[in-house]
Amino acid sequence: MDDLFAGPFDSGAGPLYVQLHRRIAQAIASGALRPGDGLPPERDIAARTGLSRVTVRKSVGALVAEGALIQRRGSGTFIAPPVERLEQALSLLTSFTEDMARRGRHSDSRWLARGLHAPSPAEVMALGLGAGDQVARLDRVRGSDGVPLAIERAALPAQLLPDPQAVGDSLYALLQARDLRPVRAVQRISAASLGAEDAALLGVPVGAVSLRIERRSYLPGGRIVEYTRSLYRGDAYDFAVELTLAPQSGAPKSVASHPVPPHPSPSGPERTAP
Amino acid sequence: MDDLFAGPFDSGAGPLYVQLHRRIAQAIASGALRPGDGLPPERDIAARTGLSRVTVRKSVGALVAEGALIQRRGSGTFIAPPVERLEQALSLLTSFTEDMARRGRHSDSRWLARGLHAPSPAEVMALGLGAGDQVARLDRVRGSDGVPLAIERAALPAQLLPDPQAVGDSLYALLQARDLRPVRAVQRISAASLGAEDAALLGVPVGAVSLRIERRSYLPGGRIVEYTRSLYRGDAYDFAVELTLAPQSGAPKSVASHPVPPHPSPSGPERTAP
DNA sequence: CAGTGGTCTAGACCACTAC
DNA sequence: TAGTGGTCTAGACCACTGT
């Protein structure tokens, strides 16, 4: 462990910053460096490895972006604690508030926008709006126990929600009270890296990975009631879904409505082979 | 457009590399820079902005990681072409080969491993193996028309697939011929940034974003037949899923087995507000 | 060959943290 | 105050591309 940063470097195994990145990542994976441990100061690592500080920072910075390390200005660099990963069933149409309540957690909400606005082109298209129609926009940072977990940007036709200020913690609770709860939704999931603004809202470094989920929710009659774009912290969320047989090989089956079984895999910052 | 890189910089709006990053990102978003356009050489940008090349590279590098720019050594830096995003229905249990065939595309496969091996601890746990059991491991890079799209690492109990070399393009086709086709599966989806090895396999820069999908597939009797971990290129894949009403508010419904409707959103490199 | 991106260095100053 | 990470510079050499 004490010679983690000893030479020889430049043993022909690619760029120096890649070699250092690999060494640190392996030390973490093997348990030689444990969560909460501090890394030596960058200047020390540079001196001990014979590399420049810029090169050291390139390796360390990549590990920070991957979520393996945490840097605190004025304090030091530390091995990231294992993240408690939240698993969410994708096949159920639930709200953030309900998800958290089911886990026995409190759900935080910080409003970014809550009012009537002129719709963006994407919202016009998604909600099927006409000229002059307005949207109720509900943008907020959602979290649990003070930790931000997701950015949620919801848009509803103003006709369905003329008083967005009436929305409290749970949009779905209000919709249900008004007999406007959606019964069906289509979600699209993709991966994205976070820009400066969104990263700041979630309290993660720029470039951190996230899950982007776009959801269109429908009323029983088929009308779209909600168009929501969310960004979930990639280091804090898993989404689980149960699949059934492909239709061309047999009849479709109904999805199970029970909770997804727990998974045994070790939780921690998600990263691929370093 | 010609003064995109003119001063004044350091107008108090944060670090210089963030300001430059924002300028370029906005130029792309606004259409001032179009897909295929070339950026000036880094040394030119440095000279015109008055920044050092290191700082310019920090801005450009972030945009490359986000998928907005593409760099080619010896050639130049270019605005990334709009990526053709593939949308895949998550609620159907299909194979990569079938997914591509349904789109009328040819499916490529490059084997990384195809044989019997001693199982990893994760595989023992996922497949419920006993001591001494072996696994058939099928690791490959999958793509379409020569473009790598995903890394797929499948493991099956050796008892169910004693001859992994018999697997051709489609594992599921072989399983079906042997009456071992799974009828149910549980998937877990998360986001991850790519390490050096996986990035190289997919032909994307280190740190690029990906969707990580872990799948456990079950036979009609409930036995696990397949444990697969896949990494899909984040810039090339959307996953779509249809949701139904949460069970506590009504009876569960069956999932739709028809293809997910097309989406109108502009395709392009996924990124959040820069 | 000239030009490009890829890597690396040595040194500097700043902002923040901990004592 | 001393030490830390955050930012930035000027300059160098290499590997590769295109002509």
Q: Spans of chain A of 5+ residues with little confidence (pLDDT < 50)?
A: 246-271
Give the mean pLDDT of chain A. 80
Gross morphology of chain A: elongated
**What is the ordering of alpha helices and beta strands of chain A?**
HEHHEEEEHEHEEHEHEEE
Structural class of chain A: alpha+beta
Level-1 CATH class name of the largest domain in chain A: Alpha Beta
**How many strands, which pairing sense, and closed or not: the largest β-sheet of chain A?**
6 strands, antiparallel
N→C terminal distance of chain A: 19 Å
State the CATH superfamily name of the largest domain in chain A.
Answer: Chorismate lyase-like
Total helical segments of chain A: 7
CATH fold-level topology of the largest domain in chain A: Chorismate lyase
**What multimeric state do the chains show?**
homodimer
CATH architecture call of the largest domain in chain A:
3-Layer(aba) Sandwich
